[in-house]
Amino acid sequence: MVDGTSYSFGRTGLDVRSREDYLRRNSFRTGYSMVLNLTPEEEERFVASMMEFEGESYNFLLRNCADLPEQALESLGYQLGPNVSPTRIMGSADGLRPSQEE
Fold it and tell me: Taking the model in full, what pTM does it have?
């Protein structure tokens, strides 16, 4: 979620809705969150990357809800490596700094 808006990827594609609506519709499962200390410019690029998220259809192991934030973080220069779940992304991103381009 960014500023009270949820961005998620699932079987029906990209879903964007308010935090309250997302939580109400998804009360049957656990959600994970991280606080990212992004500049306003990075936050804008992060959201833009999520809004541009397209590609192959949903696959539980190969193309799932973890791919949306992973791709958005990588667009900011964070190299996370392959992650198959949100909890793996959290472990990969913990204390991570963007890679320096030469």
Answer: 0.78
Domain ranges, ordered by start, for the chain: 5-93
Residue 80 corresponds to which tokens in the numbers above? 């996370």
According to DSSP, residue 59 is labeled: B
The phi, psi pair for 18, rounded to 5°, reads: -65, 155
- pLDDT by residue (tens digit) across 75-100? 998 888 877 787 777 777 765 655 54
pLDDT of residue 43: 94
For tokens 């992973």, name the residue.
70
Rounded to 5 degrees, φ, ψ at 9 are: -125, 130
Q: Give CA–CA dist 38/44, Å, rounded.
A: 9
Rounded CA separation 45/43 (Å): 5
Torsion of CA 43, 92, 62, 87, to 10 degrees: -90
Asked if residue 102 has pLDDT above 50, the reply is no
